[in-house]
Specification:
Bound molecules: zinc ion
Structural class: alpha+beta
Low-confidence stretches: none
Mean pLDDT: 85
Strand content: 35-45%
Number of helices: 5
Number of domains: 1
Helix content: 25-40%
Shape: elongated
Strand order of the largest sheet: 1-7-6-5-4-3-2
Largest sheet: 7 strands, mixed
Number of strands: 7
Length: 171
């Protein structure tokens, strides 16, 4: 990833400074976020993020709600499976130029740029929310044609010349 691309935020808000007001922003989160972080697992994403910034005496909080759907390949049939996401998190907005220790639940407000960037935070929320088992809930929802094909491939691989297996062990 080039520095140029990393610098350019997809989801950000411009602020003149940390004031005492409360703001609400909305972002349409799409595949561009996965492209930015070169995520190959998530094939499609369509979600709406709502961010509410609340200023308290010593801290600014960001309440983030992310609602939509994410598609990945099904581990069983390899066709696309879509999961709903409905996430809520509260983060602290910290005034700094970066987040070098990758602190959790921290969003950086860079006063030089005058903006709060949400890309990394939204990305982490989505990736963390993905189920470990990415399969169609019911096996009958799986792509039957793909399943047949995969089974055939399995059968074929059982008949592989044993010398190939020896080779594989060397790799
Ligand atoms: Zn499936």
């Amino acid at each position: 990833m080039s520095d140029e691309r990393e610098r350019k935020a997809l989801y950000s808000v411009q602020l003149a400074g940390m004031s005492t007001e409360t703001y609400t922003f909305q972002f349409q989160v799409d595949d561009a976020l996965m492209k930015k972080y070169e995520n190959e697992e998530i094939k499609a994403i369509k979600a709406e993020a709502t961010v509410e910034l609340t200023h308290r005496p010593n801290v600014t909080e960001a309440d983030i709600e992310l609602v939509g759907e994410v598609s990945t390949h099904c581990d069983r049939c390899l066709s696309l499976v879509t999961f709903p996401i409905n996430l809520k998190e509260r983060a602290i907005v910290k005034q700094a130029t970066k987040n070098p220790e990758n602190e959790i639940n921290i969003i950086i407000f860079d006063p030089d740029k005058g903006q709060i960037e949400f890309d990394q935070y939204l990305y982490d929320m989505i990736v963390t929310a993905l189920p470990i088992q990415r399969v169609h809930e019911h096996e009958e929802d799986c792509d039957a044609e793909m399943m047949d094909q995969l089974e055939q491939n399995d059968d074929q691989s059982d008949e592989i010349d044993p010398r190939w297996n020896d080779l594989k062990n060397l790799i």
